[in-house]
Design goal:
Structural class of chain A: mainly alpha
Largest sheet of chain A: 3 strands, antiparallel
Order of helices and strands of chain A: HHHEHHEEHH
Oligomer: homodimer
Largest interface: A-B, 63 and 62 residues
Distance between the termini of chain A: 45 Å
Chain lengths: ~140, ~140
DNA sequence: CGGGATCCTGCAAGATACTG
DNA sequence: CAGTATCTTGCAGGATCCCG
């Protein structure tokens, strides 16, 4: 598999240069991806631009506060843009920037991996938990 | 760009079937990737198997507690395996399972994206913050 | 060496209420 | 409609000590 070569080599590169986790680009960006909602919002915006409440309706289990914050972060990072239409009442549309669109491919690959291997992972978890229960509380 | 088609279509698929965030495979898996340390540990194990304190030495800013927990989670999900050698004192080696190795490619793609676009993102942030400061506190 | 057990703290994030 | 403001809490995660 060719995919892992870049990862391991880049790791030894970072190591060699003295690794600073706080300034690490990868951490910095992956922290966002790992955000509870970022990936979901990105995905929702992938299809087409959407308005605030439209997003909220699509993802009912995110609070307005968190949706606002997630969108702000995306805007701040230049992944999404915000367009206000001064209608009555006001409507605000969010859309992916070119940069935002460019992350869809790698992100999509990861999502696809997650989808394909979820069953396997669930089985692994079940086995692990069963084994752990035997060890600690075989009542 | 062909990469975003899968993402947006899979999103509408989820939508159509009634979307449950708690059971969402993607969330479930990406939560792990988003963990503070998971990606880093995965990357460290990509090159070769490593022992506990070896990992700790490589990543000094992770506490033993968190390293243990991260490794346990990886083991639980079937991404890594744990091998105990009953020497004196004991030594424990962690290595990626085939499943763990299979995530390196998509994860690597994302890491590469992060690396390539980090400068752009930093600039976007700086611009956004400067603009925000003008709006709120132009003293 | 490779952890487990415990204590403690800050901040992420939900709930609720208000506004232009 | 599209947010902000404030309060409150859970729990991730660091520090510390102990153990086989």
């Amino acid at each position: 598999m060719a995919g892992d070569a870049p990862l391991s080599t880049s790791f030894s590169d970072w190591q060699a240069r003295g690794f600073d986790a706080a300034a690490c680009p990868v951490r910095n960006v992956l922290d966002r991806i790992g955000d509870k909602w970022t990936t979901l919002v990105l995905t929702a915006l992938a299809a087409k631009p959407r308005r605030f409440n439209e997003l909220h309706r699509i993802m009912p289990d995110i609070s307005k506060r968190m949706l606002t914050q997630t969108l702000r972060d995306l805007e701040r990072d230049g992944l999404a843009t915000r367009h206000v239409f001064p209608t009555k009442p006001p409507s605000v549309e969010y859309r992916l920037s070119p940069l935002g669109q460019s992350v869809l491919a790698p992100l999509g690959a990861l999502v696809e991996w997650a989808d394909r291997n979820y069953a396997t992972i669930r089985e692994a978890r079940a086995r692990f938990d069963a084994a752990a229960e035997l060890r600690s509380g075989p009542n």
